[in-house]
């Protein structure tokens, strides 16, 4: 099992930036690590993910060009750099992993291990 601890959330104005961090420990041979968000009253949605072996990335269309997923060389911390934040980016952001290979890494229901989340509030 993998343990995931997010940090870096907070309040920011429209157009601002935040970088979220996720410290990963335990089972590190996962297939994909991703950031999933849940806005108040809405379903979860995966916003970005990165494959463990080849570091392929995928993004939700709504965040392309604004969010960047990356990780450190030790592969123990994954980041989500968020720029040009919009009101609709307000959500709790979770770091999560998929253990087995999947053709649909942007489907949030595929994720099996989750952190507790970090809240992001974007205000005007």
Shape descriptor reads globular
The protein's oligomeric status is: single chain
SSE succession: EEEEEEEEEEE
How would you sum up the major sheet? 7 strands, mixed
Secondary-structure-derived class: mainly beta
Number of helices: 0
C-alpha-based Rg, rounded: 13 Å
Poorly predicted spans: none
Helix percent reads under 10%
What is the total tally of β strands?
11
How much β-strand is present in the residues? Answer: over 45%
* Separation, N- and C-terminal Cα atoms: 40 Å
- Overall average pLDDT: 96
Structure description:
The mean pLDDT is 96. With 124 residues, this protein is mainly beta. Strands 2, 4, 5, 6, 9, 10 and 11 form a seven-stranded mixed sheet that branches. It has a four-stranded antiparallel sheet with strand order 1-3-8-7, with no helix packed on it. The relative contact order is 0.32. The N and C termini lie far apart (40 Å). It has strands spanning 2-7, 10-13, 18-26, 32-38, 44-51, 57-59, 67-71, 77-82, 91-98, 113-114, 118-123.
What's the quick description here?
With 124 residues, the chain is mostly beta strands.
Name the features.
124 residues; 0% helix; 11 strands; seven-stranded mixed beta sheet; four-stranded antiparallel beta sheet; globular; mainly beta
């Amino acid at each position: 099992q993998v343990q995931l601890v997010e940090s870096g959330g907070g309040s920011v104005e429209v157009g601002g930036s935040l970088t979220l961090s996720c410290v990963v420990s335990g089972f590190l041979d996962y297939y994909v690590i991703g950031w999933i968000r849940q806005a108040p009253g809405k379903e979860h949605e995966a916003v970005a993910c990165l494959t463990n072996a080849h570091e392929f990335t995928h993004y939700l269309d709504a965040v392309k060009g604004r969010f960047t997923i990356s990780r450190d060389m030790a592969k123990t911390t994954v980041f989500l750099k968020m720029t040009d934040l919009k009101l609709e980016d307000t959500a709790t952001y979770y770091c999560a992993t998929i253990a087995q290979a999947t053709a649909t890494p942007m489907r949030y229901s595929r994720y099996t291990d989750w952190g507790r989340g970090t809240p992001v509030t974007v205000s005007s």
